[in-house]
Prior knowledge:
- 70% of the residues lie in helices and 0% in strands.
- The chain contains nine helices and no strands.
- Helix 1 (7-26) packs across helix 6.
- It is elongated and about 60 Å long.
Amino acid sequence: MNTANNQRFQETDRRIKDTMLELIQQKEFSKITVNDICKGCGINRSTFYAHFVDIYDLMGKIQQDIHRDAIDSFQGIDFDPAKYLTLDYLTPTLYHIRRNRPFYCAYFTMGMKDINQLGDLVQQRYMEPFMRSLGITSERQIQYHFRFFWAGFIEVIRIWVMDGCPEEPEELCRFIEKSIHPFPEQGK
């Protein structure tokens, strides 16, 4: 029996996901069909449906894999709120995004319906401690600062991804840092 814990099942699952990511690079997500995926990885429709409910379920599962990869990118990095928006934290994020560019292209093309959920998570886990370390304690001010930053950050990332990630992550990170702190501090 081909169950979810079976190696063959898992290999087929991976092939389906890889085929979807390849197809996303060739055409718009909205134009990809189950037949395209099945043809691309040499399976029949019933095999596809044994793994996924539909294409949106498939993308959801790919998104879960991508989020796990994002979390793994930060293994071994100790969080310091004072360094949140620095090369230490932004660079692994940008490498993760570049490594998973086909997914993020689709994500931005699909309208990013989960982007606010991700923003809420980033705000709670990282930005609030960072803002508090700067002496900003008002919940409303934290929300304003974060949403302002988040909208700009997401748009810069969207442009970078859709243009093929032409800059190295460190270069883009320096641009983001300079955008956050555009004026050199006096006396330095």
